[in-house]
Structures are given as structure tokens and as C-alpha cells.
Amino acid sequence: ATETSALAVRDLVAGYGGIEVLHGVSISLESGQIVALVGANGAGKTTLLRTISGLIPARSGSVELFGKNISALRSDRRVCAGLAQVLEGRQVFGPLSVEDNLRLGGYSQPGSSVEQLEAMYRLFPILKEKRLLPAGTLSGGQQQMLAIARALMSRPKVLLLDEPSMGLAPLLVREIFAVIADLRATGIPILLVEQNAHAALSIADHGYVLETGRIALSDAAGALLQDERVKTAYLGL
Ligand code: ATP
User: Fold this and answer.
1) Among the atoms of ligand 1, which is closest to the Cα of residue 213?
2) CA of residue 44 to ligand 1 center, whole Å
3) pTM, two decimal places
């Protein structure tokens, strides 16, 4: 991590009650990069994302956004500071229309929401087509796109994605990873947390492997895809 890293996480320790889950995790995300964080079930991936976004308090360590220490901010203030998170399980508001879901995502940056809405419809034409329908009527993949677009409505400086492929049929998994790869054109750096290590590393620049609360490997994503340890443990090869 450098002073100009988009996101710099240093020595983060966090857990639940008497259980320490993260034992000093350091990762960084540079401008324009997609970084994949992969690891087995229970390694602490979700806990790390939630600690970065402030939903879980850090016991020690720090989180910096473009050189600004945001560790003391509540999660909603971190969103205002430019850190957006898409939670696991696509938390869209089912009864509300697609467009109202998007408007809610822009609440922290009033004024520019019409332009931003148009930008989202250019990125995700299917959402424009379905803009007046209740979000709950969309397919799983479309709801995931909506969750991502809603997070982008706040014009974030960094986007955190938690398991975007979870629960999607294989065809839709491919589609959602293609969408995430396309987001590279927006220039917004993305931290992508995934169980689907192969798909995540295939679109990422850099990758980290998290094992029981510690970073076990950190390398260029292409190098991790060729790494024998990664192949056996995470790629099923
Ligand atoms: P998954 O892909 O299954 O979500 P993960 O790598 O994201 O796995 P976490 O969900 O961060 O892992 O969980 C890490 C550890 O923390 C696990 O041992 C889990 O049982 C524990 N844990 C998670 N949430 C809680 C909680 N709310 N209370 C207590 N322990 C928890």
C-alpha cells in the first residue's frame, strides 16, 4: 500500500464476541484495479469486507481511502466518504420499482441523481427496460446488477462486492462477471470477494488468498491462477 492507494487496509483485527476471525489482515487496492479476495468457506472474507465498510468494528488496524484514515467513521459516513458496498445476497427492495431502488442508492449525493440514473441505464440497459417494475420481479442476475448499479449511484471512489455470483445459475454467473469486468471502464477500483476463485481471478488484476483470517498469498491474478497451491485448494484442478 502507498499513500495514494485507493484503499489501504493495514493489520486489521476483528471478530465476534470472544472469537477473533481476522488476525491482522493487510491488503491494498490501486486506482483502476479489480482486486479479487478468494478463500474457503469461513476464511473470513465477509468479515473482512464488513470490517472495511464499518459494519463490524475493527479491534485494531486501520482503513484508509485515498490516504484518508476512515477507521473512526460509522458505516454510513464511510459511504459518504466514497466507499460503497454491495452486500452478499443482493439486498434490493423487492416491492419498490427498479428506478426507486436506484434513487435510494443516490441519496447520499443529492443533486446529480438524474444524470447518474442515465449513466446506470447506459451501463445496464436491462434495468432501463425494467425500470418501472418491482425489483422483486427481476431474475437473480438482474437483481445483482441492480444491487451493483444502486451502489454506483452514490458515485463511489471504491466499490466492495461481496459474492456477486452467489446463488446464480452458471450462465448468469458468467454474465455477472462480464458485467464486473466492464465496470473497469468506469475507472472505479473494485474489491471483489468471491468463493468462485477461478472466475474472480480471471477478471482481476491482483489477487489475495485469505486462509483462516490471514493473507496466505498475494500476487498478480494471472500468477495465482497458475499457482499449484491455488489450483489444488481453490480451483479444483
Ligand atoms: P462464507 O463464504 O461462508 O461467507 P467467509 O470467508 O466470508 O465465508 P465469514 O463469513 O467472514 O467467512 O466467517 C468467518 C468466521 O466467522 C466463521 O468461522 C464464521 O463462523 C464466523 N462468523 C461469521 N459471522 C459470525 C457472527 N455473526 N457471529 C459469530 N461468528 C461469526
Assistant:
1) 14
2) 6
3) 0.92
